[in-house]
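TA notes, week 10

Several of you asked for a full example with nothing omitted. So below is the full record: structure tokens for the whole chain, then the designed sequence directly under it. When grading your own attempts, check the secondary structure regions first.
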């Protein structure tokens, strides 16, 4: 089921979109609504949607303001707007589609189907990467360099417990309860450590699979790592995490 968030400052538009989705898009579930940039940012951080139906002109800013404020965009976007002059700028944010109000039900269904296909392909690639990561847990003799303003560290991958996003910085947690703040994004480290036993369980966290201690199911789910470091699991990653733990136990 695709989790959808509707962001529009007009209540009747949100209501109309919700009804159209219920009638024409059975593969989706509306996770929530927001009425502007500030509330939209809050909803995205809390709900972690797969797909966002996003208005452009809102009372407290634009949809582009909202997207620019995010450290990473890990969901699909369909812009829904009364203005057609923003289409080129919209597609610079990798929008799936750009729909004009009043929304045509068939065009909405087609756009949601396209988004669903992209989400499924992304999940397939994630599972493929996960399987490769599981194969490489025992290959963590590799070392990487972590640079701060004062020091340069040579760190073994087996020493890294987790990495946490901090805007354009990343906080690296080490096995001896040490923390190093480096001026690279979490996306940089996700790409760098791909295939070396690391997995992104949440938009803000990348974990070392070798340091998993247990999975706590309450409140959506948490991974507990070495040093009792407790990491939240994104709701859409929960099933993957459960499958991953089962594979590790085989």
């Amino acid at each position: 089921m695709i989790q959808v968030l509707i962001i529009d400052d007009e209540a009747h538009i949100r209501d109309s979109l919700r009804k159209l989705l219920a009638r024409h898009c059975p593969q989706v579930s509306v996770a929530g609504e927001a009425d502007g940039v500030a509330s939209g940012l809050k909803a995205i951080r809390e709900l972690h949607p797969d797909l966002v139906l996003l208005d452009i002109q809102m009372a407290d800013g634009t949809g582009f303001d909202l997207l620019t404020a995010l450290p990473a965009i890990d969901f699909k976007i369909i812009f829904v707007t009364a203005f057609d002059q923003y289409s080129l700028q919209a597609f610079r944010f990798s929008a799936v589609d750009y729909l004009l109000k009043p929304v045509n039900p068939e065009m909405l269904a087609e756009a949601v189907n396209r988004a669903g296909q992209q989400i499924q392909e992304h999940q397939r690639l994630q599972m493929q990467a996960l399987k490769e990561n599981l194969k490489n847990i025992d290959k963590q003799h590799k070392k990487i360099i972590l640079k701060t303003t004062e020091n340069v560290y040579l760190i073994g991958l087996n020493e890294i417990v987790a990495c946490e996003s901090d805007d354009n910085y990343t906080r690296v947690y080490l096995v001896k309860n040490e923390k190093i703040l480096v001026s690279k994004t979490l996306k940089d480290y996700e790409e760098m450590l791909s295939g070396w036993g690391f997995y992104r369980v949440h938009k803000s966290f990348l974990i070392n699979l070798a340091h998993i201690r247990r999975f706590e199911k309450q409140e959506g789910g948490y991974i507990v790592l070495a040093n009792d470091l407790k990491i939240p699991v994104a709701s859409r990653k929960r099933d993957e995490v459960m499958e991953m733990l089962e594979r590790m136990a085989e």
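Helices lie at 11-24, 37-47, 63-68, 87-91, 105-135, 186-193, 238-249. Use that as a sanity check on your answer.
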